[in-house]
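User: I've been trying to design a sequence by hand for this structure and keep getting stuck. Would you show me what you'd pick, starting by listing the structure so we're on the same page?

Assistant: Good idea, let's start from the same input. This is the structure you sent:
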């Protein structure tokens, strides 16, 4: 049986696991998935209130946009998610949203991480969280993969789907396996940075604004605000509302290495100016997105690159194409195609 390790439980990694399970005989393949975080989602992260696990907020991606050029190519993926109730059309009012002809937006009733959880469930993979990969070495024609606790395991195939700078931080034989040309191309990939705040409220709290979400263009700090449950058309007297605030990229870059508590207070101060009527939350979560969205992809946007053939080592993700749902689907499909060719 071939053991495959996928590193990263974000959209690309989880869909890659599901596609492998769909397309290759189960008796030939054992899929293992490691992620350094405490749960699934990556930048499709959904956070919950400390007081009520049903009060949730999407701190990463806010909704899924289907671009017209992908409507036919990825039709099956959208139909699957809509049929299972994972996606639902975005109908709540979003002020300042830019819509091009043929674009469609979708929300996730159970939070944006429900997309990755849907694919992980389908994949039948062995999933391990709090597994931060630090070293990848060749050993007896297999990959020995080590994590930060010092433990390791061996695999026939390794798929890396984390942000490109984290691939370049890996130690072991992989340092010499990545050739000079590949290293230069990997180093050319760049990402924007930003912060996100999740504000969680007690049940019964009223937030009186006419919109469900709003893009802000005239604030030095805040770029986007969402009444998160309202965005998903889920307003219940039994579950408190939640608010998500995303900073601008320039603010994120300027304050990237600041203490998170200080950044949180700066954002809250600006939030008072933008929405003066906002009540005091029961709890707050601050998320630093060091690698938020790809600003410059791997040259040629191939979806994946193969670093080593035997044993097989491949990397993919939005850094190899572009940062949106359709980009991650394309990357996962290209990884699986390359992996099938190697088998």
């Amino acid at each position: 049986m071939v053991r495959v390790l996928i590193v990263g439980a974000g959209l690309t990694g989880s869909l890659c696991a599901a596609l492998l399970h769909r397309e290759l005989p189960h008796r030939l393949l054992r899929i293992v998935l490691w992620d350094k975080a405490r749960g699934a989602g990556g930048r499709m992260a959904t956070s919950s209130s400390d007081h009520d696990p049903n009060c949730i907020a999407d701190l990463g991606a806010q909704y899924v946009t289907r671009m017209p050029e992908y409507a036919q190519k990825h039709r099956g993926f959208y139909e699957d998610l809509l049929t299972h109730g994972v996606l639902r059309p975005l109908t709540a009012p979003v002020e300042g949203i830019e819509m091009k002809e043929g674009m469609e937006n979708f929300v996730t009733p159970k939070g944006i991480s429900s997309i990755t959880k849907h694919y992980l469930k389908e994949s039948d993979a062995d999933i391990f969280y709090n597994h931060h990969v630090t070293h990848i070495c060749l050993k007896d024609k297999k990959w020995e993969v080590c994590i930060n606790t010092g433990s390791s395991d061996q695999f026939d195939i390794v798929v890396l789907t984390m942000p490109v700078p984290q691939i370049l931080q890996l130690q072991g034989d992989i340092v010499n396996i990545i050739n000079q040309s590949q290293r230069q191309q990997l180093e050319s990939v760049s990402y924007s940075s930003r912060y996100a705040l999740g504000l969680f409220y007690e049940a019964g709290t009223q937030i009186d604004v006419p919109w469900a979400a709003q893009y802000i263009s005239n604030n030095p700090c805040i770029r986007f605000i969402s009444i998160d449950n309202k965005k998903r058309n889920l307003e219940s007297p039994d579950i408190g509302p939640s608010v998500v605030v995303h900073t601008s990229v320039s603010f994120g870059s300027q304050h990237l290495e600041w203490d998170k508590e200080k950044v949180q207070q700066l954002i809250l101060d600006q939030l008072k100016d933008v929405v003066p009527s906002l009540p005091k939350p029961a709890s707050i979560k601050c998320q630093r997105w060091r690698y938020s969205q790809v600003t410059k992809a791997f040259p040629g946007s191939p979806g994946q690159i193969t670093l080593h053939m035997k044993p097989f080592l491949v990397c993919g993700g939005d850094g190899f194409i572009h940062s949106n749902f359709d980009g991650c689907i394309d990357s996962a499909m290209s990884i699986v195609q390359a992996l099938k060719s190697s088998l």
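That's my pick for every position. To get oriented when you compare it with your attempt: The longest strand covers residues 133-139. Residues 93 and 193 are 27 Å apart (CA to CA).
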